[in-house]
Amino acid sequence: MRKFFKEFKTFISRGSVMDLAVGVIIGSAFTAIVTALTEHILKPIINFILAVIFGSTSLSGIYTVLKRVNLQDGTLDLENSIYIDWGSVINAVINFLLIAFVLFLIVKAVNSSKKALEESSKNLRTKSKRFTYEQKEELKSNGISPKDREKAEKYFADKEAKIKEEERIAAEAKAKADAEAKANSTEALLKDIKEILLAKNN
Question: How much is the pLDDT for 202?
Answer without folding.
Answer: 60
